[in-house]
Amino acid sequence: MQSDIEIAQAARMEHISSIAKKIGLADNDIELYGNHKAKIADGVYDRVKDKPDGKLILVTAMSPTKYGEGKTTLSVGLGQALWKLGKKTMICLREPSLGPVFGIKGGAAGGGFAQVVPMEDINLHYTGDIHAIGTANNLLAAMIDNHLHQGNALNIDERSITWRRAMDMNDRALRNIIVGLGARADGVPRQDGFDITVASQVMAILCLSSDLADLRERLGRIVIGATHDGKPVTAADLKAHGAMAALLKDAIKPNLVQTLENTPVFIHGGPFANIAHGCNSIAATRLALKLADYVVTEAGFGADLGAEKFFDIKCRFAGLKPAAVAIVATMRAIKHNGAGSVEAGVKNLGRHIENVKKYGVTPVVALNVGLNTEDADPERELAYVREYCAEFGVEVAVNEVWEKGGDGGVDVAEKVLKVLETPSTFKPLYETNLSPEEIIEKIAKEIYRADGVTFSPKAKKDLAKFKEWGYTNLPVCIAKTQYSFSDNQTLLGAPEGFTVTIREVRLSAGAGFIVALAGDVMTMPGLPKIPSAEVVDVDASGKIQGLF
Question: What are φ and ψ of residue 488, in 5° steps?
Answer without folding.
Answer: -120, 110
